[in-house]
Amino acid sequence: MPTQLAGSFRNELDAIGQALLAVSPGLADTPWRPGGWTRKQILGHMLDSATNNRQRFVRAATEGCFDGPNYDQEPWVNAHGYGCQSWDTLLRWWKVEHEILAAVVDLIPEERFEASCVVGDDAPVTLRFLIEDYVMHQRHHLAQLKPPTARG
User: What would the pLDDT profile of 54-98 be if each residue is shown by its tens digit?
Assistant: First the structure.
């Protein structure tokens, strides 16, 4: 049976997924700010975050801790060529990645949420913190996808 944290995580991801569907595909190739990533690249970065955090969540849950590398966002976004993908493809990938991630969090036992996690040179945090911070990170980037007049 999923924990309260898992239920909250899944609900948050569902809400973010619905909000992503409301982002106009006409904005996909438009940078969110002058000189910044396009919305496609931001959504790709959100996908990279899912991939990297899945490793962290699974290892902390199965091994009792995580100690691994940080994420070098520019090379990852460039390596995946997110800017060349269709908006619809990126949205489908986001949905699948987050179905997998939610399924992982559903199966984490309550006692593993306190597992120590070290990402790169950062101070240790708990797995619970990584899961909660993940949602905040997705919401942060979701705000960048919206048109400037819709942010706030």
Answer: 999 999 999 999 999 999 999 999 999 999 999 999 999 999 999
- Cβ atoms of 106 and 2 within 8 Å: the answer is yes
Helix, strand or coil, per DSSP, at residue 124: coil
Radius of gyration, CA atoms only, the chain: 16
Instruction: Work out how many domains the chain is built from and give that number.
Output: 1
Boundaries of domain holding 83 = 4-150
Q: Reading across the β-sheet that carries 116-119, which strands appear in turn?
A: 65-68, 116-119, 125-126
DSSP symbol at 27: G
d(CA 37, CA 30): 8
End-to-end CA, the chain:
36
151: pLDDT strictly greater than 70: no
Q: Residue 62: which CATH number?
A: 1.20.120.450
DSSP 8-state class, residue 38: B
Torsional class of 135: left (φ above 0), alpha (ψ -120 to 50), beta (otherwise):
alpha
